[in-house]
Amino acid sequence: MKIAVVHNLRPGGAKRVLYEQVKRLSKNHLIDIYTFTSANDRYFPLNNLVSNYYEIEYSYPEHFPASVISIYWQLPKAYQKMANIINSGSYDLAYIFPCFLTQAPYILRYLKIPSVYFCPEPKREFYEKIPRISNKLSYTLTYPFRFYLKKIDVDNLKPANTILTLSRYNELNIAKYYNRKSIVIRLGVNTDTFYPQNLLKENMILSVGNFTLLKGHDFIIKSLSLIPKKIRPKLIIAGFGGHEQSYLHNLAAKLDVKLKLIDSPKDEELNQLYSKAALLAFAALKEPLGLVVLEALATGLKVLAVNDGGVP
């Protein structure tokens, strides 16, 4: 099959899933990638895996109000341009990944070929109370201007012919919020990347996930502070982006918990952290799956996780 794969993702678990799926699909199918110049493809680069790699010009302004104006006006035009190229490209299928700006991307409205949308989660900010500290004021002030994104996400998803997701928990949420059926595909771990290493264990707890409070890092810090100081383990948080680094540092200092933050670790470093840690603590709130839990287990690391969301 000739497949057009579309994404506008930033670093994180969804980009890892995209990379692993494209790597496997490209063995038996002709794959072309379509993305924007604003997407960060330094993390799990795809250009060496596929037949063709196309970047459509789109520059996202990070600050309000230009950011919201761009999402409502410039972004759909850029996706329409992308769709026109795909529609004329003799593709059998378009495989669509989320857009970090709208979740379900505008391109689903404009495609004239069969489409499959991989939905790792709904646009959670409109369905859950998201804990925030560092950017709480700015987010609250701009929320009324962002609320229309909820409708955009729902309307963008409607034309998708098939929806894939990654857990039964998420399947139920898609039915609840979008009134659509979805197919659960079970994700795995690349055991060439994550595997047991004979490294000396340290008195260290590991938490992996973006530097946001959704990942429960603050809960882990507070929990560790209850352990007697003489035997209290240090905490390493490995993550990709987010706004709460300063808050986490200050909280750890206040509670006398030794903390180290590692931003954007490479896979080799992450595998070593799994191998050196005494335990992976996973406390994310309503996480759709928790891929890092599977990664840790693949290395032989014990996992202590919350019974919440789609955590396996």
From TrEMBL:
Source species, domain of life: Bacteria
Keywords linked to the UniProt accession: Transferase
GO molecular function, one term: glycosyltransferase activity
InterPro entries with a match to the protein in the record: Glyco_trans_1
GO BP, sorted A to Z: lipopolysaccharide biosynthetic process
Domain Glycosyl transferase family per the UniProt entry, residue ranges: 200-312
Pfam families named in the record: Glycos_transf_1
Coiled coil feature spans: none
Keyword Transferase: yes
Protein name: Glycosyl transferase family 1 domain-containing protein
Organism: Candidatus Gottesmanbacteria bacterium RIFCSPLOWO2_02_FULL_38_8
Source taxonomy: Bacteria, Candidatus Gottesmaniibacteriota
